[in-house]
């Protein structure tokens, strides 16, 4: 019999919420075991091919499911930050994430086919490889490598911390569940969690390379989908339907929870009572940020390069479209039900695990189902780190070691170099995260915006504009990166008056004219790339013809 | 001369360009529908009693749910019928005189 709204809400408010049981840890252990098995399987597949293309690009063999469910910007945030925002700000977050309705078609339809073709015509295995060959410029390749290493390092460190926290708190005696940074008490459980997480993710990535990263990503995506579907049913049953949930959550909060620009609790960490979560300027911004941020992400570009053929790319569009529809709207509904059932959760990032535990508590085998739902964010974090490890090590081995130090390196030598790069990345991550710094979220957001502002316009002109020059592309990269960096510095150092818009946080960029920094970054990048390209000599027509014209 | 160059452009480059432009159009249409409809029905309404449709606030239903479903259908049509298949070509192995491959 399903839990009713009143009984579940009473349970949530008057009793302590169900705690993490053995089910969660069992599912995490199972997930780790499956990931290692995937690593071994991928290793077997890779061993039958050339090392570089196999280890770093999966022999350009990604099929529909692998490409569709792993090439865009799903990560740990899908199950952590995003639900927290819905719980805190209400239905407005549907508009904040609304652009995901076109992420599949833009993610594969704008660059997919052409990038896959260009990477074959240039023989490129990595993104820097592609730029170096497209413009016949080693310096452009090096610049690209430096930017990728810079952005991905920030992104990866934060994921290591998140993975360690999940393991720490899923410990059967671990007490509260929370994925938030302030929960990262540097105790023994955190350090054990950090080491177990690092060893696991480095080991299976080291074994299976790109394919291991992709396959675990696919596995966790399917796990997420199953978890969300189960939780959606459980949440709606417990809340007495969506209409009831919306009205109850409205009573628990205020009109802002149902209407734009969103609900901001009076006790939230903002000095301004008129704070708006999503004014119209930011609503427009988010339709640009999510779309172009996804298209320009280096890890996503690599996966497009690895796609098997055009048939795979076009089918990926509608497979991902259905997947996104089944993930994001249901997650919003679950969190709205969450606000009705658990009106005043102090740590809003707990909402998904709390709902999993609360709504399945009376089910037969409920703890295993809750464990499955809890394992999803852990899987998301692991697969994200894994893909970053591959891109980072490919940058170090292919774009630096092989390109500049050992062009004639043997297969074994390259494999050893890749392993050393990954182990080194793991060791550095553990060292940096041993005493975890606060407010890593700002670096994640900065790195995502920065990477898109750096690579999107150069990738577009590399694919479609014959007149683009090396200097123009370099100018586009530098202008995009510098603009985003500048706006973040101005905001973080509070060199301008604080703005009462956006997510409530002490570390925010300057939203110039109310727009997200990525928009200004893309504008600066486009203008610089076009102007400098027209001011510099065109590339060798033979090279352009080889890359744009029919093959003779 | 220009005509010759254009004629010689790889068919996959041409079809990719055309598809990219269509996608950009779909993105713009989705953005203006979604943000426009939400602005019309959802902003500045906090003093009004909530209007719900299937449990969704009215502005979410027309501004997010309906266009999302429409985009799913369009994506299926686009992927299944509009995007043209083409040869991606062979992987270049060795470095040539133009610096490609290797």
Q: Could you describe the largest sheet of chain A, including whether it forms a barrel?
A: none
- Radius of gyration of chain B (Å): 22 Å
Number of helices of chain A: 22
Q: The CATH topology of chain A is what?
A: Sodium/glucose cotransporter
Characterize the main sheet of chain B. 2 strands, antiparallel
- Poorly predicted ranges of chain A: 1-8, 10-15, 174-181
Mean pLDDT reading of chain A: 83
Structural class designation of chain B: mainly alpha
Number of strands of chain B: 2
Q: Cα-atom Rg of chain A, whole angstroms? A: 23 Å
Ends distance of chain B: 32 Å
Number of helices of chain B: 3
- SSE run of chain A: HHHHHHHHHHHHHHHHHHHHHH
Give the total of domains of chain A: 1
Question: Which oligomeric state applies?
Answer: heterodimer
Which geometry of chain A do the CA atoms define? globular
**Percent in strands of chain B:** under 5%
Fraction in helix of chain B: 55-70%
- CATH homologous superfamily placement of chain A: Sodium/glucose cotransporter
Task: Name a few traits of the molecule.
A: 552 residues; B: 102 residues; mainly alpha; two-stranded antiparallel ribbon; 3 helices; 2 strands; 63% helix; elongated; disordered N terminus
């Amino acid at each position: 019999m399903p839990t009713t709204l009143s009984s579940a809400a009473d349970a949530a408010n008057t009793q302590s919420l169900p705690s993490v049981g053995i089910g969660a840890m069992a599912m995490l252990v199972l997930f780790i075991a499956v990931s290692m098995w995937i690593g071994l399987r991928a290793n077997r597949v890779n061993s039958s091919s050339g090392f570089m293309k196999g280890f770093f690009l999966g022999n350009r063999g990604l099929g529909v499911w692998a490409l569709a469910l792993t090439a865009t910007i799903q990560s740990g945030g899908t199950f952590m930050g995003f639900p927290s925002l819905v719980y805190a700000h209400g239905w407005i977050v549907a508009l904040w994430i609304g652009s995901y309705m076109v992420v599949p078609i833009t993610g594969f339809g704008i660059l997919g086919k052409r990038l896959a073709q260009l990477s074959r015509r240039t023989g490129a295995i990595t993104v820097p490889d592609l730029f170096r060959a497209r413009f016949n410029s080693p310096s452009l390749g090096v610049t690209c490598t430096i930017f990728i290493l810079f952005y991905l390092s920030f992104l990866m460190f934060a994921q290591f911390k998140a993975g360690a926290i999940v393991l720490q708190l899923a410990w059967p005696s671990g007490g509260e569940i929370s994925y938030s940074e302030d929960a990262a008490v540097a105790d023994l459980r955190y350090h054990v969690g950090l080491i177990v997480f690092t060893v696991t993710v480095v080991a299976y990535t080291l074994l299976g390379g790109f394919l291991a990263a992709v396959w675990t990503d696919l596995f966790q995506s399917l796990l997420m989908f199953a978890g969300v579907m189960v939780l959606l049913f459980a949440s709606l049953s417990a809340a007495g339907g969506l209409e009831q949930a919306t009205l109850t959550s409205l009573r628990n909060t205020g009109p802002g929870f149902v209407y734009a620009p969103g609900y901001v609790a009076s006790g939230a960490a903002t000095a301004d009572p008129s704070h708006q979560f999503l004014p119209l300027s930011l609503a427009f911004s988010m339709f640009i940020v999510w779309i172009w941020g996804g298209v320009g992400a280096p890890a996503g570009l690599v996966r497009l390069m690895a796609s098997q053929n055009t048939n795979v790319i076009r089918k990926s569009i509608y497979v991902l479209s259905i997947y996104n529809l089944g993930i994001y709207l249901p997650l919003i509904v679950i969190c709205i039900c969450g606000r009705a059932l658990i009106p005043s959760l102090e740590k809003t990032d707990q909402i998904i695990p709390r709902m999993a535990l609360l709504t399945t508590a009376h089910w037969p085998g409920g703890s295993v189902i809750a464990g499955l739902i809890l394992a999803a964010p852990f899987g998301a974090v692991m697969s994200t780190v894994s893909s970053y490890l591959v891109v980072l090590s490919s940058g170090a081995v292919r774009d630096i070691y092989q390109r500049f130090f050992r062009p004639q390196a043997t297969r074994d030598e390259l494999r050893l170099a890749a392993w050393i790069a990954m182990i080194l990345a793991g060791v550095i991550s553990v060292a940096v995260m041993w005493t975890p710094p606060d407010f890593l979220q700002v670096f994640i957001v900065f790195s995502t915006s920065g990477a898109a502002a750096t690579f999107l316009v150069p990738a577009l002109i590399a694919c479609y504009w014959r007149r683009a020059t090396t200097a123009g592309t370099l100018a586009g990269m530098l202008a995009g990166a510098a603009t985003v960096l500048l706006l973040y510095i101005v905001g973080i150092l509070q060199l301008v008056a604080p703005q009462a818009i956006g997510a409530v946080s002490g570390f925010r960029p300057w939203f110039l004219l109310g727009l997200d920094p990525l928009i200004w970054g893309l504008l600066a990048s486009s203008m610089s790339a076009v102007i400098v390209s027209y001011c510099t000599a065109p590339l060798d027509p033979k090279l352009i013809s080889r890359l744009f014209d029919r093959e003779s | 001369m220009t005509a010759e160059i254009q004629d010689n452009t790889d068919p996959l480059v041409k079809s990719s360009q055309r598809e990219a432009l269509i996608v950009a159009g779909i993105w713009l249409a989705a953005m203006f529908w979604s943000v426009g409809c939400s602005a019309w029905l959802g902003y500045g309404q906090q003093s009004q009693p909530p209007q719900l449709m299937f449990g969704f606030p009215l502005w979410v239903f027309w501004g997010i749910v309906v266009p999302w479903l429409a985009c799913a259908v369009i994506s299926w049509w686009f992927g299944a019928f509009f995007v043209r298949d083409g040869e991606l070509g062979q992987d270049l192995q060795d470095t040539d005189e133009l610096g490609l491959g290797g």
